[in-house]
Amino acid sequence: MIHTSPDKLIIERYAAGELGENKSRELTAHLAECSICSEYHKSIAREREIFLRVYPYEELLKRRASVNTQNNVLTGLKKILDML
Questions:
Q1: Measured between alpha carbons, how far is 68 from 77 in angstroms, rounded to an integer?
Q2: What percent of the chain is predicted at pLDDT more than 90?
Q3: How far apart are CA 51 and CA 41, in angstroms?
Q4: Which of 29, 30, 76, 84 is most deeply packed, by most CB within 10 A?
């Protein structure tokens, strides 16, 4: 039997909450009946859970804000030095 299903990118977008309401409903129904896609979706969910345990989103945002602040300070210092 040939497996006809959404491509993996659609399932990945579904897992990330990036699909519209209609597409999400269609894919939810498909996942309920298709073990191949359902297993792929479960593997993505497990990978995401592991990733977020290792790299918590809130911590990444804090680090990013810190880097942006450091960059802003360096840019400001460069402007001051240029004026001298």
A1: 14
A2: 43
A3: 15
A4: 30
